[in-house]
Records
---
Amino acid sequence: MASGIKDKVVIAGMGCSTFGERWDMSSDMLMVEAFQEALADSGLEKKQIEAAWLGSALDDVNVGNSALPLATALRLPSIPVTRVENMCATGTEALRGAVYAVASGACDVALALGVEKLKDTGFGGLPIRTKGSVNDLWMPYGSAPGTFAQLAGAYSARYGIAADELKKAMAHVSWKSHQNGALSEKAHLRKPVSMETILNAPMIADPLGLFDCCGVSDGAACAIVTTPEIARSIGKNHLVSVKALQVCASNGWESQYGEWDGSYVRNTRIAARRAYDEAGISDPRADLGLTEVHDCFSITELVTMEDLGLSDDGRAVFDVLDGKFDRDGAIPCQVDGGLKCFGHPVGASGLRMAYEVYQQLLGRAGERQLSDVNFGLTHNLGGQPSNSVAAVSVLGRIE
Amino acid sequence: MPDTQILAVAAYLPLLRFDRKAARSALGWSGLGGSGRGTRAVAGWDEDSLTMAVEAARGTLGSGDGADIARVTFASTSSPFIDRSQSGVLIEALQLNPAVEALDVSGTRRCAVAALSRALANGVAGAELVVAGEDRHAQPGSSASMNWGAGAGAVLVGKGQGIAKVLTRACVNFDLLDFYTSAKGGDPYAAEDRFVRDEAVAHVYGPAFRAALKQAGLTGADIAIAVVPEPVSGTYGQVARGLKMTAPNVCEEIAASAGELGSAMPLFGLSLALERANAGDRVLVAGFGNGCEVLILEATGKPAAATATEALDRGAVFNNYLRFLSLTDSLSLDWGPRAEVNQKTSASTLARHGRDTHGFVGGRDARGNVQFPKTPIPVSPLAEGPEQYEDVVLRDVPAKVTSVTADRLNFTPDPPFYFGLVQFENGARVAMEYCDCEGATPKVGDPVAMRFRVKAIDRQRNFRTYFWKAAPIERPVLAKETK
């Protein structure tokens, strides 16, 4: 029986670049910005890093494929470097590689860095890509908002929630994130927005309006991980450990088999259950002090609250409207603004989430600091609800 | 005449009807824009002469699988390809036997009636499907731009009890240039209307009709319904007067609400005529174009479904002239960088998967679950490893909407882009595009029907791929005055 990775690996240091439209920065500069912060935070030297994982989802936009962009940008000391790509779960996938390397004993210190330079595409939204020569013969070319918007209709149909009620709750999700983003110095969007503005925004994909959608950003985030023993040996007393790290990928059941009703994301449910088991969390509603979830679209965050077990099925609409996930609510969500406002440089997002949880656990979150945080959860969702990769991690303190 | 009869007929029009008043209004400053009367059928961005022909041909199969069909002829003067067998793609779309004889005919609007005439004369062992589709381009401002329309018709001929039998055939060749379209020019160039009408009566329709009536031992008064495409309005009236024909010409009605359908006009009109005819009625069918082909038929039964009547009665009218120009490839809009996706089709991929995608062929696994596409290991949770499938054609299987959205970000030539998951009654679930929504997003649980459509157009390489899309099961009924 596998023992899991709980408390086998700690985060020695983290860094995160400012996210946004970084017109003056290329991906190598963003990587260096995040890495220098992480290295300084870790108390380690670059030469101590024995392996590295680069997360970049869209290699054709500035970054490039293979390990070389990271190895070259950071002038890493001829170590094994692996590039990983798992759509929007890429950042967490990079962290998983580094954490597993240390947990296995293969190395003592490992680096995970996620980066994306999306604003070099020359237009808003994600790049348009083919789905492969076979799939292109039949599969629809939907946009990201289009694929996630379908959650809303299916959710309404399943629970009998009126479209305008759901739209109001979705608007609250975005309103809350804009409030939080205003407190994040490194966030892409730092302007609060009124509910009226959100509700009346132009439609992107029914029923998602402009403010129901996160934008795309340039940015990088980085973690240096090691063993608790090494961390303590260099004088670190307050340690944040990885309690759980789970990834779950669709096998086609949702999109090809006739059982899924489209109102939830099964992979998130499976990954969360495994993560709670691995972390030893029996009551996530009581134990989690904050969550950073994949709010690519407002409906995604709303449904994710149910998929993570933080709302009963069919009740997230009401929990959201009651403020349960606001910064002063019972389980704050996206206290840094989330994908919606902190930004979404795809390959970096999972590590950006971990960065915020790490800061909160160490009491370094400044104006955003929450009280009484013992565990924080991150959640990435790559692909689309009908064909996804879900990643859930739990971070916490270790004595 | 051999004992080859018309076994089935069917017709198809695209959903959209353009209100000609809108063109008259938009072009009023120029004096162009035509009469402004009636509507014309407009192909959706994802329809062409082949997709519409497939839809018409489906109507002739009824609940059958076309196993008797031994020969297929596809007729069109607006085929999307000069050298790619469209009849071959149609055979794949209908999942007919790959060994059937296939022929593509073109060169003149009368090619469909010529093909039908030969099919009735010669016959084959088994049945022959003659199907015509048309979606012709004409320059904005031209009469053709407003008078022409998009549509398709299909006729299944063979031995046995049919719905009409042929009494006689006639043909006249006369190089009357009512208009011509050159390979290089692409758009029609028209002659003076009065000249065309007089010459068509004097040298084409007049002699051909007289010859056919004489051969059949009939007079003009014996004809109950005429299916006579008019190169110019009033042509039929003039020729009919000379022959004492009093039969209504269904092509005038079709032209008013759907437009002149080119090679598909006589086959569409034949469907409409046989839907209205009583047993024993004589129907004169003509195909016009640098001469003409004429058939005189006798109705012996009714089509299984009134597809032509239904096509004329239902649709969606729009009056945005710029949208009309865009849909008819007459206006090149800058759709921005999101439209720049490279859609090159892999020939080897198409060779491996084209028959399944064109024919919408899924597979039934060992447990009975149906899926599309077939994969080495079935999606069924109980599948342990690779399996062989039993082919299942999904095009006529009842289906419902599982999820849907109207996507305004994704590029499509006619926004928004509707897509989602479709659940088939036999268990198959497929991510699909929806078509023919015309502003009304389908709801979860709504029934949908499958339509053969253009999947993607590679404008860099002038190629297109085809797949099936899900359409609302019923079209809106047109108001009487717009028909």
---
Amino acid sequence: MIHLNSRGIPRAVTLLATAALAVAACGGGASPSPSATAAPAETPGPTEAPSAELGGTVTVIGTWGGSEQESFLAMVKPFEDQTGIDVQYTGTRDLNAVLTTGVASGILPDLAGLPGPGQMAEYATAGALKPLDEVLDVATYKAETGAGLVDLGTVDGKIAGVFIKAAVKGLIWYNPKIYTGGQPASWDDLESKGAAAAAAIGGDARPWCTGIESGAASGWAGTDWIEDFVLRAAGPDVYDKWVAGEQKWTSPEIRSAFESFGKVVSESYGGSKNVNATNFGDAGNPLFANPPGCVFLHQASFITDFFQKQGGAKPGDYDFYPFPDINPAYTGAVEGAGDLFGMFNDTPQARALIKYLVTADAQAIWVGRGGALSANKNVTNYPDDVSKRSAEILANAKVFRFDASDLMPAAMNEAFWAGIVAYVQDSSKLDSILADLDTTQSSAYGG
Amino acid sequence: MTPFDRPIERTSGRRGRPSRKVVLNLIVIAIMVLWLVPTFGLLFNSFRPAVDVSGSGWWTSLVPPWNFNLDNYRHVLSQNDIGEAFVNSLFITIPSTIIPVAVAAFAAYAFSWMSFRGRDLLFVVIVGLLVIPLQTTFIPLLRLLGPQGIELLGPGVGSFVAIWFAHAGYGLPFAIYLLRNYMGGLPREVFESAAIDGASHVTAFFRLAVPMSVPAIASLAIFQFLFVWNDLLVALIFIGATNAPNLPLTVAVANLSNSLGGEWQFLMAAAFLSMILPLAVFFALQRYFVRGITGGAVKG
């Protein structure tokens, strides 16, 4: 009996064991980089010649995937060729998890995209992020980069993060084949022109296309609306106090921003249910449908990518106006966003790469491939008129403000998203939603 | 409960059997169809252009004019890191399956057929480990395996070894629990007669316990293989920060879409491509489920 079934099995076990060993051995042989980065330059000495052949590797992590990743790799290609440094890039949307565990355990990439200015300040004060003042040519960097962006990357007077790419938020997109009413002079003008154009189309058409679904981050597209209303109706001072947690959500300024957004939702294609159920990336598709479903879409400059890839639109099918003024006292205010980058390990390779990334030469590569605005003012090679004009808005902004929700503490930001979703679902609950946000505000800012 | 069983048995014995079987089959088929609908949706959509997918439901693609193409698959396969990531996935998954299954088999035998002090307590502790979410272990484990500890993590091959350990550790509580329950249920007479014949524990383990537990070991291997193959988070945390060339397929696939969630159309094609190997493993090991050998063991 003992002999019956046993013969094959030990052989199978041995086979598996051999396979494991073989795999282990292959694993050993297959790694192409035998501790190339293991020279972690304990001496951050004056390695000020990035053009020389440095060699080695630099590890980079960021949120960019798909075509963004291709653009980033294209951007660092000349750097790799010139310096012999191998850029090892990991893209993930779980950046937060990797960096949080990394900061706690010391396993960090040399350079990393940062989730937002809030986390950047945390990492910088904890000493994980290395200051860049000695690494960069500060005078040139400040001269070439918008003042708002430089300040956002500064913690306690030291540069902790730099912007590699930027976006303008709050643009009013339209299809020039449908809307021919010209640039609206004010918010009221925009509303009446939108209503007139929608009535001219007839059927189910509405002035607005709105979609705020975005997985776990659903609602953020609505927060951009609120931010635009606060910035342009109540002004940058209220906006800053609001970001800092000193402006109550129940205050009349924030409340009226929500009400203005509520009016937009009620005038949106498909009604409030559709607004909550539509992904922000698909929201603009009715602009290009036949018959069109709406006249305007409010979204950031990066939406053109979605227009082309998911909406089936071609360049020329879409164009934009800047968000019109609401209160003339705050004219020229612009809201933007961007991708922050910081240095965790001070190696010569990391220094060389971050110096390269802030230059106009480097950022022009990504800009030329489309889908991005440069944080560097000297970049001008925008591939089309739409991105050129959005870059001008960014460069010429009289008042520049970063996306407010991204500046708020994470708990406040998430409550804001959820509040938007709840408000779109049932606008009659505004009082309790704002009161809840006030409660979150009193705890989220850590006293 | 028992009065419930009897009449059913009787009717099925006499006249109800064929019709009951038909009903049963219909229910099973209905559940299967329900279960597979999302997968079919994904499959059809993976052959459609993104503009169509965001414009209309997948079922509309079933009626002519058909607008299917292989562009999404072509794009995924043309990514130059995909092949490397596939090989990395194998490097990670195969040892991460074999190690815990082998260790768990030894442990399960010991817990079932060897008596030593504190056996039950130790087993309870191991089963208790099942409730610990693996996310809470990341930071201590990274400290242990990283530069502050034994320096396995970092550039080079060390991260592969580190992640084998990590996956083995995460898999072991469940593996031991499953195999111990199975081995503990094997007939005692077999082991007693083996002991009388002079078989040591080693002989009893390799000649009796393992061959008789093949169905359990095979199902465990499938579970563990799928868990590791589909894992994104552990790989990302242990390898992602410092060792991009060693990243597995899941990370490469997730990275096909961009930071705003666009370009998702490639994910559907990639999902089906990354499914091929787990399916092959499942079908290869499936026959072991069917071939339970315990039944005849004592009689032999």
---
Amino acid sequence: MEDSLIGPILLFPVALAVLCLLLGRASRAGLAVAAGGWLYVALLAVQLIPFVLGVGGRLPLLPGLALEKLGACFLLLTAVVVACALSHAHAFFSSERQSASSPSDRQVLLFYVFALVFLLSMSAVYICDNLGLLWVSIEATTLTSAGLVYFRRDKHAIEATWKYLIICSVGLAFALLGTIFLFSASQHGLADGGSLNISDLIQQAPGLEPTLMKLGFIFCLAGYGTKAGVFPLHSWLPDAHSEAPAPASAMLSGSLLNCALFALWRLLQIASGVPGSHFCQEMTLWAGIVTVVAASLFLVRQHGLKRLWAYSSIENVGLMLVALGLGSAPLFLLQAVNHSVAKVSLFLLSGNIIQLAGTKQLSELRGLWSAAPGWAALFALSALAVTGVPPFGSFISEWLILVSSFESRHWLAAVLLLLGLSLAFIAVCLHAGKVLTGSPRSEIEPARTCSRSVVPAALVLVSVVLGLVIGPDFLRAAL
Amino acid sequence: MSYPELFAIASAVMAILMIGSGRLRINLLFYAFQTVFASAVTASCGLVSGDHQLYSIGLAILLVKAIGVSAFIAWITKRIGVTSDPGTLIPVPLSMHASIVFLVVAHLLASQLPHLKGQDHSLGGATAAISLLLTGTLFMLARKVAVSQIIGFLTMENGIYLFALTQTRGMPMMVELGILLDVLVVVMIAGLIIFRIKRSFEHIDVTLLTELKEY
């Protein structure tokens, strides 16, 4: 039976982390982690793809743990993102160590270990079938990724880590309160003493006490929303993404944000069965719209390269919230996949560019085209992919989100969304254009670009393929 | 008024006394008292309902949160050599008055919540829980020093715990332990970062951590 194998596979990152510690040297561990990451992806794919394409809807693993199709897709996406980031990390850290602020061997080794434990905690989110365990897993992702943000150990990194830890912990405290409200709602409504089990709650949703259910959902939206970077609660996100080393930023943006949004999806699954709780969907939708508009306004005046992409991630979180608010799991997944692919490529490339230029200030980054044409081309393509330009996959998902918000007669929301997306496109193009053109501020010696271009180039290719392959079918179905 | 309610309200009062002092040692002492009362609520709930699991959870809270965490934070403050917190815009006496008002507000809110059948200590418990939550939030907002932020967070967490205890019948043990462990790890990591903040910035005033800004 296949269900007996997924559990052990999920523990594979832990084995890899132990192997890293045993190897003891960052250069050797880096290669092992890169190979191990892709082996993990392959093992997961062999197990999960038949399940996702098959007829069975739900795969119970252990008490309180079960896998659904959407969760399986996200599990695979998370593994791919982490494998990409880690296989780039080896080249990234070897060139980082030639620069002035070189991290020590131990720092890099610890980075790999934290990244692998982080992968485990994120995987746990997708197999939870219990609201309490879901909360514990999300909190665990905060704790393990704090180690990644803390990597450089300088003033900025300490400040970013402190804010990340405190803001997310307080936010998640509210999500815990929301979870307790939901438990209480199930005890008021159900005869058999209540439950935190998600699949039970979905089945018995009509029996939940509506007031407590709504209160619980509001607290959870605020709590998990903090973790996802929903607009007024996003302040930790640009700091953490900007101060973490590039592979960690890629993992935070490409996989961590999806975890929090997936938790909200599970809650919406429960809420959609409660009579008169249409307002939960509406609230999620509007939280998404507000986030998209606010993030695109922030995008206009940015001064740091990685902060720019951090705000672009917030914008995409807004889009995914809109997809959740529209009640469409496929749209949520599609947008998440496209965003992760393009954003991981962008963060990894930005790391390279920052290494090359020695600064992350947008005002000082100029003339990438003449300094490193290969990276410049990939950078331009990734930036276009992230804003949703036609040949790329994210165009399809953003288009479909817009169409369905018009179809569901959310006129104002759709118009605001359109304005936000256009503004974000213009802002990103302006900033990226300035980085690409002009002449470099200082003489930059041509870098050995090959090993650090492989992963971004592959991701750009995937983004195009996603757009070309799934595009026509989806469009035909939508039109 | 039943024993669980009495202990819960006592816990909320300890939080109000805690916010009334600007000295970290006194804050910490009242945090410990507040947590001791929270563990007393747990034990007395166990006595009322006859659920013996609650005794062991109460004991775990007493040992881990009331004694262990308090001792850890006391050790940090001693090592760093910070004794008091000047507070932000909201002065210390005013924040205590505000938290007394919060207790009343909490009572009004708690009486709006639907009551669980067969849970007679629900109203007092909910009042204390919401009051602790609000007081903890205010404590985090009104104080400058990083150590105070952790104490405020722990107070919020106590409020959430009391809410779970008095508004539901028995959270699953696994979940309860997971939460306790997570809180413990947050405090440990935050404590270690405080040492780093002290070493790099030569202060632990979190309102001055503003190097990462937009403009």
---
Amino acid sequence: MTTTDILWGVLRIVLIFSAVMGLVAYMTLMERRFLGFFQLRLGPNRVGPGGLLQPIADGIKLLFKEDMTVSHANRFWFRLAPAIALVSVLACFAVVPASPSIVVADIPVAVLYLLALSSLGVYGILLAGWSSNNKYSLLGGLRAAAQLISYEIPLALSIVGVLILAGSMSLVGIVKAQEGLWFVVKQPLGFLLFLVCVSAETNRTPFDLLECENELVAGYQTEYSSMKFGLFYMAEYAHILLASCLVSLFFLGGWNGPLLPAPLWLLGKVFFVFALFIWVRATFPRVRYDQLMGFSWKVLLPLAFVNLMVTAALTVALS
Amino acid sequence: MIEAVLFWGLAAAAVASALGVVALQNPVGSVMALLAAMLATAGLYALMGAVVVALFQLIVYIGAVLVLFLFVVMLLDLKASAAPARAAASGAAGVGITAAAGWAAWVAASHAPPAGSPRPAPGVFELAFDLFGRHLLVFELTSVLLLAAAVGAIFISRTGKRRSS
């Protein structure tokens, strides 16, 4: 490994990291404005032209808020929890490619890496809920653990169909396999399953039982303020960005498309998927907790197995 | 050079966090120390080139098993379990098990092939062909065993509930 290689690696990390953080900031604005339109109001539009400086104002406000740690909290874990939540999501972006060449590390087992790293995020939420020493936080944390573990299984199974068709576990390889036809056509059930599971994994509204403001105040993040809360907020939106990227890469052909350069195609698809998530959030009410668990184990898991069996049988029969 | 630094760093972290599992007073601290030990071991696997094994260590142990540990520990009444009675018998058992494990490690190390050109670590495809080809019967039998254990655990917990209510 030469010095140039190392410099290139660092440069790519900085590039992807700043792109992710910039997108995360503006996704919060996009969500607030879109939710405004869905509810027949304007949303934040006063800071800068069309509200474009709102994320910067939000960031400054968060930094200057008083940083409180409740006296009965378990300080060490209370401080560590938001960092775990954010780091586990950001580490996932190391294998997410924006084009065949713009990627930090194109490893042959990228899908396994994503599953492994994203499963670390639950520790941030669990520890936050427990160390706050508050019954609402603890309930939120426990719900999060049960929910995230339950939805991880159909999530992983719904990708296996894609892996069978692509014959590769590298994200670049999976996108290359979709040059002719997007996998959403060959895997319609897998696409729907992945979309549902991923919105449960990112705690989006029909499945946001761990925050659930009308029962649990704010769930695991009740006692957090200032930039510690900001870290959780960033982790949440980075997770949604990751989910939108993965839906685009696994099912919507990634950067494949005519005329425009590759990263722009991916950006457009990510934008589309995120808009879909906002639309779902604005439309559906929150499900009940037993419905949430029953849906995962009794509906999604059997459907994911059916999808896997049919895909495997057809692939063997047609080859 | 970099590999030696990484190895000693990870090995030291693994030993230190393993000690933390036993020594820490707070059960949540113990679980998190176990998590650190698992991470360090996964790092050691990855350093040996067994990336798939390292990732499965993360998915299975950290992603599933330890989350359940943490889940149960958080539901415990921590004040009641803060000072567990450590009998002399359990201490003796600990020393005995550690000695046996150390002897097994010494035997394994003295029978190990000399360091040289190691075989390349198997990727996903090699592992899959081995599991579902040569070892298919054993693999499927293990899954039946695990299923029986899960059903048994549910049966025992349910009958216990009925008796108490």
